[in-house]
Amino acid sequence: MPRRSRSFRVGRAKTGLGLFATKPIRKRAFIFQYTGKRITSKESEKREARGARYIFELDKNWAIDASDTRYVGRYANHACRPNADADVEKGKIIIRATKRIEPGQEITYHYGKDYLENVLTRRGCKCPTCTRRRARQRAEQRLRAERRKKREAAKRKAVRKNTKRARASAR
After folding, report:
1. Where are the domains of the chain?
2. What are 81-135's pLDDT values in tens digits?
3. Are 120 and 127 in contact (CB under 8 A)?
4. Could you give the count of Cα atoms lying within 13 Å of 24 in the half-sphere of its Cβ?
5. CA–CA separation, 25 vs 34, rounded Å?
6. Torsion angle of the four alpha carbons 43, 45, 49, 51, in this order, in degrees rounded to the nearest 10
7. DSSP code of residue 6
8. Nearest CA-CA partner of 7 in 102, 85, 92
9. Which of 58, 73, 79, 140 stands the most exposed, by the fewest C-beta atoms within 10 Å?
10. Around 8, how many Cα atoms within 13 Å sit in the side-chain half-sphere?
C-alpha cells in the first residue's frame, strides 16, 4: 500500500525547527496526529522537572511524550495567533487547520495557558505577533525617552536663561 504524502515538512524556523506546509491546507482539514509515548500524568511531571519539553497533556491522568525525534508533531511551534488547533478525540491528539494554510507557511498552534505562563513568559514568546508587539513597545520606549530628554534639556535651558536675566537685572 503506497504511503500518503504529507502536506508538511520539517524546516528551519525563527524559533528553531518548525513544520511548514508543502501543499495548500484547507480550513478545518486534518494536518497530523500528535504521537508519542503514552505516559501517566505523574510520569509527565517527573519528566518535565528534568527538562522534557514535548509533553502534551491528554487529560488529568494521561499525557503524550513526543521527545523522540521520530514524532514530527513535536516540531509544530507555538503562536499566539495560530493557524491550527489541537483537539483531543478518543484519546488521540489531532491537529487541524483553523484557516487556510499556504505552501511555505509555518504550521502553528497555541500551546495553552499553562505552557505560556510557565515556559514562554520566562523566555519570551517568539511568535510573529509577540515579536512585532515587543519591537513596537521598544520603539515607543525609545521615543518617550527621547522626548523626556528634550523636555529636560529645554527646562535646563529655560532655567539658565532666567538666571542670566535675574543677574542682569540685579546689576
Report:
1. 8-124, 127-171
2. 899 999 998 888 999 999 999 999 999 998 887 777 766 665 677 777 788 888 8
3. no
4. 3
5. 17
6. 80
7. P
8. 102
9. 140
10. 28
Would you say residue 17 has pLDDT above 80? yes
Span 26-44, pLDDT tens digits = 999 999 999 989 999 999 9
Alpha carbon distance, N-terminus to C-terminus of the chain? 105
**SS3 of 94, please?**
strand
pLDDT tens by residue, 132-154: 888 898 999 999 999 999 999 88
Instruction: Please tell me the CATH superfamily of domain 8-124, with its number.
Output: SET domain (2.170.270.10)
Under 8 Å between Cβ of 95 and 31 = yes
pTM of the entire predicted model: 0.70
